[in-house]
Specification:
CATH superfamily of the largest domain: Vaccinia Virus protein VP39
Low-confidence stretches: 14-22
Number of helices: 13
Largest sheet: 7 strands, mixed
Radius of gyration: 21 Å
Length: 272
C-alpha cells in the first residue's frame, strides 16, 4: 500500500511538473509582457503580434540580434530586455549627420539612446550603429549576427532608391545560416514601383527579389500579420490607417475599424 501511495504521489508530481512547463511563458512572451512597456505600445500588439512574429523568426535570448531602423523603439522595448542577459542587441538606426538627416530622425535616435541609458536594468547596453545614406552601410561587424530584423521599413528605402544597398548590408552582417526577418506593408501583386513609393505598400514579389538579389534564400512566409480588411488602396496610402490616421477626421472611424495594415512576414536565410 505504501509503495502504491508513493507511486501515486510521484506520478502526481511528475504530471504537475509537465503541466507547469507546458503553461510556462516563453522568454519572448515574458519580454512582451514586460511592465516597462507603454500602454499605447501594448495596444498595438493585437495588430503586430510580437510574440508570434519573433517566434516565427526563431529569435532566442542568447543570440546576437540586429534590428534595422527601430524608429521610436516599439520592438526595442521587447528585444532589448529579451537579449539583455544572454545575448546582444544591436540597433542599426538612422544616420544622424546634421548635414543630411532630417531633425525628426535625429530626435528619435536621441530619445532611444536616452531610454536605454536611463534604464540599463531593463535594456542592458545595446550597441547603436548608423545605417543608410549617404555613406553608412555597415549594420554590424561582418558575419556577426544570428538574426537581422526589420519591421515596416522597406518602403522607405525603395522611396530613397537605396533598398538594394540596405539588403546587401544585412547579408554582410549575418553569419552563414543566419536569418533575415522582414515585416512590410503588403500591396496587391501587380502594383507598380511608382505606386509602391507613394502608398508605402510593397508587393511580396518585389521584397523577395530584393532579398534574393542580395544573396538570400526565402525560407518561409507567414500570415501572422495579415489583415484581410485592408485593401491597400487609401487616399494617403498606408498612413491613412492607424496609428498615423493622416486623413484626420475624414472617415476616421472607417480607418480605425480596418486597423493597421495588411503585412507580409518573410523569413530569409543566408546560405551556409
Amino acid at each position: 500500500m505504501s509503495n502504491l501511495k508513493n507511486l501515486t504521489v510521484g506520478l502526481s508530481l511528475a504530471l504537475a511538473s509537465i503541466f507547469a512547463s507546458a503553461n510556462a511563458a516563453s522568454p519572448i512572451e515574458d519580454a512582451v509582457a514586460g511592465a516597462h512597456r507603454d500602454a499605447k505600445d501594448v495596444a498595438r500588439d493585437v495588430y503586430r503580434h510580437p510574440a508570434q512574429t519573433l517566434a516565427f523568426f526563431d529569435v532566442k535570448p542568447e543570440m546576437n540580434v540586429v534590428e534595422i531602423w527601430p524608429g521610436g523603439g516599439w520592438y526595442a522595448d521587447i528585444l532589448a530586455p529579451l537579449l539583455r542577459d544572454k545575448g546582444s542587441y544591436v540597433v542599426a538606426g538612422f544616420v544622424t549627420d546634421p548635414d543630411s538627416a532630417p531633425q525628426w530622425r535625429i530626435d528619435l535616435m536621441d530619445q532611444l539612446t536616452a531610454r536605454f541609458a536611463g534604464k540599463p536594468e531593463i535594456y542592458g547596453k545595446p550597441l547603436i550603429t548608423q545605417l543608410g545614406t549617404p555613406d553608412q552601410w555597415t549594420a554590424a561587424p561582418a558575419s556577426s549576427a544570428d538574426r537581422v530584423l526589420t519591421f515596416r521599413n522597406v518602403h522607405n528605402w525603395l522611396k530613397g532608391d537605396y533598398a538594394e544597398a540596405m539588403f546587401q548590408s544585412f547579408f554582410k552582417a549575418l553569419k552563414p545560416g543566419g536569418i533575415l526577418g522582414v515585416v512590410e506593408h503588403r500591396a496587391p501583386e501587380g502594383t507598380t514601383v511608382d505606386e509602391m513609393k507613394i502608398s508605402g505598400y510593397m508587393t511580396e514579389a518585389y521584397v523577395i527579389r530584393l532579398a534574393e538579389d542580395a544573396g538570400f534564400k526565402l525560407v518561409e512566409r507567414s500570415q501572422i500579420n495579415a489583415n484581410p480588411a485592408d485593401t491597400a488602396r487609401h487616399p494617403k496610402g498606408v498612413w491613412s490607417l492607424p496609428p498615423s490616421l493622416r486623413m484626420g477626421d475624414e472617415d476616421r472611424e472607417k480607418y480605425i475599424a480596418i486597423g493597421e495594415s495588411d503585412r507580409m512576414t518573410l523569413k530569409f536565410q543566408k546560405p551556409e
